[in-house]
From TrEMBL:
Organism: Chenopodium quinoa
Protein name: RNase H type-1 domain-containing protein
Length: 70
């Protein structure tokens, strides 16, 4: 039987509305973890600029996908 990879990607985004919005402050953060057959092969986190919770989650997915490329 061929060797099978079971890659999982978990993401999370945290967003908070900033009513005193300053242009140079971040109001969201993203994190991701990538596992291959249960073994962590990459993880990361980053502050991001985002206007909505949905945008924050999408940015987390995008960053994880970019990191998962060989």
């Amino acid at each position: 039987m061929a060797n099978q990879n079971n890659v999982t990607v978990s993401i999370d985004g945290a967003w908070k509305e900033n009513k005193l919005s300053l242009m140079n402050t971040w109001r969201a953060a993203v994190g991701w973890i990538i596992k291959d057959n249960g073994v962590v092969i990459d993880r990361g986190k980053a502050p991001v600029f985002a206007y909505t919770p949905t945008q924050t989650e999408a940015m987390a997915a995008l960053m994880a996908i970019k990191k998962s490329k060989p």
